[in-house]
Every structure is written in structure tokens, then in C-alpha cells.
Design a protein that fits this description.
- By secondary structure, the chain is mainly α.
- Helix content is about 55%, strand content about 0%.
- It is built from 7 helices and no strands.
- The two termini are about 45 Å apart.
């Protein structure tokens, strides 16, 4: 993904960037250099050059934001229904263990809403709505830490053998 948070620009940040481009357009009209504009607006010269090219081709209106590149296909109401389905757990949907994977969420979306998503599309959908990857601690309740420590000290060195 382009942005580390996974959701692209927020509405406020998008508005801020549009205002920067508007300020740059006013300065283009006054004939200021790209480097001076970039320094004052604290953006790269390359961005200002790209904005100037767009401004020359389409005027100030061409610098306005076009909105998000894509909209999620599940609306807010449907996503709330999906969250309710996920809250029921994987066992309620026919899986034996209690782990949600992206592939399983994809299957639930397909069954419930008759939509196909890719695994990466499911990830983007979940991240966009505030979900994050959770990796469970995979320790069995029956685990005996003393037996494991003894095995590591006694059995593993014999099984590993020497490096020579």
C-alpha cells in the first residue's frame, strides 16, 4: 500500500493537500519559480513541477482533488453486518478452529453479500475500517514448560549433531 496506515489520506489531510495545490496555483499565476514555491510550501520540487504542468493544461480546477481512487463495495451498513458475522466466530461459519484468516473473511463476504473480493481487497477493506492483523499466541494449554526446557537441553543437542 502507498500509505503505511493502509487507508490513504484522511478527508482532512486530503483537504490540506488540495489547499496546498491551490496556493501553488496562485503563485504559478504570479510567475514564481517552482523551487521557491516548493520551499515555502514544504513539498518537493518535483511535486510542484507536476502541479504546474497540470495547472498549465487545465487551470486551477485541474488541481482539485478527485476523491478516493476507489470506494469500498461494502457500504457502512453492510460492513456493520460483516462485523456482526465475524463476532460470531469462525465456528459459527463452519470452521473448526477459532482463527479468522483473510481467506475465511473473503468466503463469509461471498456467502453473505454475494460479492467477490480478493484476499488483498479484504485486507484493505478491514484496515480501512480500523481492523488490524492479530497473531494469536500459539501455546497449547497442555504445554509443559519444564519438559520443553529439558528436551532443549538434552535431546536437541543430540539430534542437531555437531557442525563439523
Amino acid at each position: 500500500m502507498r500509505y503505511p496506515q493502509g487507508g490513504g489520506l484522511t478527508a482532512e489531510r486530503q483537504q490540506f493537500r488540495e489547499e496546498l495545490r491551490g496556493q501553488a496555483a496562485e503563485r504559478f499565476a504570479r510567475g514564481e519559480s517552482s523551487s521557491a514555491i516548493a520551499k515555502d510550501l514544504r513539498v518537493s520540487v518535483r511535486s510542484v513541477q507536476r502541479w504546474r504542468r497540470t495547472w498549465e493544461e487545465g487551470g486551477p480546477r485541474a488541481l482539485r482533488s478527485r476523491g478516493p481512487a476507489s470506494l469500498p463495495r461494502l457500504n457502512k451498513k453492510q460492513f456493520a453486518q460483516l462485523e456482526a458475522e465475524l463476532a460470531k466466530g469462525p465456528a459459527a461459519h463452519g470452521w473448526e478452529d477459532q482463527r479468522w484468516t483473510l481467506a475465511r473473511v473473503k468466503t463469509v463476504i461471498g456467502r453473505r453479500f454475494h460479492m467477490t473480493y480478493t484476499v488483498q481487497g479484504v485486507r484493505k477493506l478491514l484496515v480501512r475500517n480500523g481492523w488490524s492483523c492479530q497473531v494469536p499466541a500459539r501455546r497449547a494449554m497442555e504445554r509443559d514448560d519444564e519438559a520443553v526446557a529439558g528436551w532443549v537441553k538434552e535431546v536437541w543437542p543430540c539430534a542437531e549433531g555437531s557442525r563439523r
